[in-house]
Write a structure and sequence with these properties.
The protein is an alpha+beta fold. The chain has helices at about 5-25, 50-55, 120-150, 155-185, and strands at about 35-40, 45-50, 60, 65-70, 70-80, 85-90, 95-100, 105-110, 115-120, 200-205, 210-215, 220, 225-230, 235-245, 255-260, 265-275, 285-290, 305-310, 315-320, 325-330, 330-340, 345-350, 355-360, 360-365, 375-380. It has a 6-stranded antiparallel β-barrel.
Length: about 375
């Protein structure tokens, strides 16, 4: 048997290995197949991309745009109700509670009866008004009579002054009792002896919902006692918190883009209404924003946490999609199209400096190599640079 040279054995082994490798990998196509690098400019080498590679990696072209661009300040906040939207229901006069059938969270209308108060003192108050009011006509007539007699030197000044004092005193007492009756929702003009009542309604001063109930049926509500809390959602506002360092860039009228973590995909437009003038212990400032469209606030709940972006004043600058800028070895680049053919494209790596970033766009600081006619790769270039 002939001795087979070692070199021949190695060549056969390498050939067999090569055939096995191509058989295993022939059905797969690398994402970077078709990418060639050749000597380029001082910015770096040119990169060639085939048409097949361009389509496989779903690349896209675009150009820098000169437009108004603004940065968004991301903050957190909460849905709150202004002071005038919160009403604590209390009593001007004490009484026993009846007719209470409201539940927390239940909506109420303005003027709706919340519950009733019952107290014998209400009867006395109505009686005093009716008695004083009934005397008022007689005292007024006597005052006018004494005034005439005194003017004609028939009656004494003493009788005239007494008649005047009695009339004015009764008139003041009548008005006072009338106002007290109004506090317990009794219309004095409609009050008659036959409709005197011991039970009076407590009405809701605003439309909203019941946030809290602080009494029970049959309990005695003392004067000034806290009975219920009513909250109106008619004028909800957004309360945001920013840090001291950002305060100088915030002012009334700026747009606010609001999103709710529990409502993905839903955003609201708000507007800065008040910028706080004091800094708290955490070096923060409160910002109040209003919803221009109050209907959007219907699905918001007081106390709900939210995320927001305060849109700062825009400036004119060059912008491109964030995906256009590729960071390689600590530097930022864009890939500029230099040649186009049926087989593919020739790209040049151009160094850039970036600025603000917002809503998927990024600012390009002035660069003589770029303008609105420059065609750059806006998507799919991350695999082309190390």
């Amino acid at each position: 048997m002939k001795n087979i040279p070692i070199k021949s054995i190695l060549n056969v082994s390498l050939l067999a290995g090569s055939l096995l490798f191509f058989q295993c990998s022939g059905s797969e196509t690398s994402e970077t197949e078709g990418v060639e690098v050749e000597t380029g400019t001082s910015s770096g080498p040119f990169i060639r991309v085939s048409q097949e590679q361009f389509e496989t990696m779903k690349m896209k072209w675009g150009s820098p745009k000169l437009e108004d661009f603004s940065e968004g300040l991301s903050v957190q906040g909460m849905v709150k109700v202004p002071v005038e939207g919160i009403q604590e229901i209390s009593a001007f006069f004490g009484g026993y509670v009846s007719g209470l059938n409201k539940l927390e969270g239940e909506p109420v209308r303005k003027g709706e009866v919340l519950f009733y108060l019952e107290n014998p003192d209400f009867i006395q108050l109505q009686q005093d008004f009716l008695e004083t009011n009934s005397q008022l006509g007689y005292l007024e007539a006597e005052y006018e009579r004494q005034k005439t007699l005194f003017g004609e030197k028939i009656a004494s000044q003493k009788n005239y002054l007494k008649a005047e004092a009695d009339y004015q005193g009764a008139k003041a007492r009548t008005e006072s009792l009338k106002r007290q009756l109004a506090l317990i929702n009794i219309n004095a003009d409609e009050l008659r002896p036959e409709n005197i009542r011991s039970k009076v309604p407590v009405l809701s001063p605003i439309a909203g919902f019941v946030d809290g109930i602080h009494l029970v049926q049959g309990s005695f509500l003392s004067v000034g006692g806290k009975a219920m809390t009513i909250i109106s959602k008619e004028h909800l506002h957004i309360e945001l918190v920013i840090f001291e360092k950002d305060a100088a860039n915030i002012h009334k009228g700026q747009r606010v883009q609001v999103s709710i973590p529990d409502l993905p995909g839903r955003t609201f437009e708000a507007e800065v209404f008040v910028v706080g003038q004091s800094i708290n212990a955490e070096r923060q400032i409160n910002i109040h924003a209003h919803l221009p469209d109050e209907k959007e606030g219907e699905m918001l709940v007081p106390g709900m946490f939210l995320e927001a972006k305060i849109v700062q004043d825009p400036k004119e600058t060059w912008v491109v999609p964030v995906t256009s800028v590729i960071v390689s070895e600590g530097e930022s680049y864009v890939l500029v199209q230099r040649e186009k053919s049926d087989s593919g494209y020739k790209l040049e790596k151009v160094a850039v400096n970036t600025g603000l970033e917002s809503d998927g766009m990024i600012e390009l600081l002035p660069n003589e190599a770029l303008d609105e006619t420059t065609v750059i790769l806006t998507q799919g270039g991350f695999n082309l640079l190390p």
